[in-house]
């Protein structure tokens, strides 16, 4: 069996669960694992103890601090990468293959692995180039984000294998030049004791939800701007917005300006263990993103019997068939979002969609299936 090293991105709260899942999958395959985990300072989450308890795993933790100025931010980022590269080098005799999860611009540790003659796998969870482009549209976008794309492309060139969630992403993310070394696998599996149907869809009020980062690439403001349009047709609708991000103040300002305080609840960041309760109160979850990989919250909602309305980006069409396991909308304009919310709620098939979605996720997104796919990936090294 292969000795595997796993390198995290610089993680915030939202990154911890998928990275932990990947570690657990690789622990099931490898003879031993070394895990380099990097957290943003102030991030409270950690890899679960049940994963840390694996005897054949070594965990090394780094804390990344952002700077107060653009120059300091870049220098601190480089420093964190150098520390990661040093750790990669220090475990050269204990690791045969390094797996970098959503590596972004973590080029220094990746180069260190290649210089030491190690095989390198990068698992890309989102369209990194697109996310960077959306980030730089924000007036507060950092210089660091603006110089990231060349490093993203360097990582793809250096990698021995690139792992994507779906074959459709090769075209969507313009990665045809790497097609020969792309493999399809994912680390998505759910705790079905936690994410399960507690309240049937017919017993739920007309609560419509958005759960995720409040940012431009997620089209958060388009969802918010659709709310008054929905209320023209669905008089009893209420809206839940759970998440945090650069657009939170804009969301809250729009709600106040339009007198929607009694119809919209802006909850902020929700701990993962509280998410099932929220999802079980929703009649519909809306995901109007411009770009996605394979969003975990979509699967979690489906496991709770909550129909999902989404744009057909990333691997979403592999999961959602319109009117069968969820609903798809052609674009994410406020008008399209509103029209499709009304369509979904009035479709008459919510009960069937809820049941189909629940069964599909429980059948497909298991740890066993993820392990099987990753075994196939590592077999090609």
What structural keywords apply?
alpha/beta, six-stranded parallel beta sheet, Rossmann fold, globular, 16 helices, 2 domains, seven-stranded parallel beta sheet, about 375 residues
What would you note in describing this structure?
With 381 residues, the chain is an alpha/beta fold. It folds into two domains: 3-189 and 366-379, Rossmann fold; 201-364, Glycogen Phosphorylase B (Rossmann fold). Helices cover 42% and strands 18% of the residues. It is built from 16 helices and 13 strands. It has helices spanning 13-27, 49-52, 70-90, 107-115, 128-137, 143-146, 149-158, 168-172, 220-233, 248-257, 275-279, 296-303, 316-319, 334-345, 350-364, 367-379, and strands spanning 3-11, 32-40, 57-64, 97-101, 119-123, 161-164, 182-184, 207-211, 238-242, 264-268, 284-287, 308-310, 327-328. The protein has a seven-stranded parallel β-sheet with strand order 3-2-1-4-5-6-7, with helices on both faces. The chain has a six-stranded parallel β-sheet with strand order 10-9-8-11-12-13, sandwiched between helices. Helix 3 (70-90) packs parallel to helix 4. The radius of gyration is 21 Å and the shape is globular. Mean pLDDT is 92; it is low at 135-143.
Give the helix/strand layout.
Blueprint: E1 3-11, H1 13-27, E2 32-40, H2 49-52, E3 57-64, H3 70-90, E4 97-101, H4 107-115, E5 119-123, H5 128-137, H6 143-146, H7 149-158, E6 161-164, H8 168-172, E7 182-184, E8 207-211, H9 220-233, E9 238-242, H10 248-257, E10 264-268, H11 275-279, E11 284-287, H12 296-303, E12 308-310, H13 316-319, E13 327-328, H14 334-345, H15 350-364, H16 367-379
Helix pairs in contact: 3-4, 4-7, 9-10, 9-14, 12-15
């Amino acid at each position: 069996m292969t000795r595997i090293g796993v390198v995290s991105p610089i993680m915030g709260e939202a990154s911890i669960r998928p990275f932990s899942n990947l570690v657990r999958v690789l622990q099931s395959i490898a003879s031993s694992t070394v895990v380099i985990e990097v957290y943003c300072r102030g991030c409270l989450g950690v890899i679960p103890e049940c994963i840390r308890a694996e005897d054949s795993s070594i965990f090394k933790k780094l804390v990344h601090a952002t700077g107060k100025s653009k120059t300091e931010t870049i220098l601190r980022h480089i420093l964190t990468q150098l520390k990661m590269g040093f750790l990669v080098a220090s475990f050269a005799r204990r690791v045969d293959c390094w797996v970098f999860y959503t590596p972004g611009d973590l080029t220094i540790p990746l180069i260190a692995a290649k210089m030491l003659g190690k095989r390198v796998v990068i698992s890309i969870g989102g369209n990194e180039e697109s996310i960077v482009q959306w980030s730089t549209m924000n007036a507060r976008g950092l210089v660091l984000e603006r110089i990231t794309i060349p490093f993203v492309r360097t990582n793809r060139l250096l990698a021995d294998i690139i792992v994507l969630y779906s074959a459709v992403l090769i075209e969507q993310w313009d990665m045809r030049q790497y097609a020969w070394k792309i493999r399809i696998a994912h680390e998505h599996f759910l705790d079905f004791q936690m994410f399960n149907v507690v309240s049937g869809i017919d017993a739920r009020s007309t609560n419509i939800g958005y759960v995720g980062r409040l940012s431009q690439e997620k089209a958060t403001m388009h969802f918010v701007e659709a709310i008054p349009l929905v209320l023209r047709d669905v008089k009893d609708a209420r809206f839940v917005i759970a998440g945090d991000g650069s657009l939170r103040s804009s969301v809250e300002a729009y709600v106040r300006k339009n007198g929607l305080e009694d119809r919209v609840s802006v909850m902020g960041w929700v701990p993962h263990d509280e998410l099932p309760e929220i999802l079980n109160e929703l009649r519909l979850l809306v995901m109007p993103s411009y770009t996605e990989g394979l969003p975990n919250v979509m699967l979690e909602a489906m496991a709770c019997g909550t129909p999902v309305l989404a744009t057909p980006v990333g691997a979403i069409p592999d999961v959602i068939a319109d009117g069968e396991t969820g609903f798809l909308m052609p674009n994410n304009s406020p008008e399209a979002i509103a029209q499709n919310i009304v369509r979904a709620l009035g479709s008459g098939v919510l009960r069937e969609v809820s049941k189909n979605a629940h069964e599909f996720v429980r059948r497909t997104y298991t740890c066993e299936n993820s392990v099987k796919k990753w075994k196939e990936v590592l077999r090609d090294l």
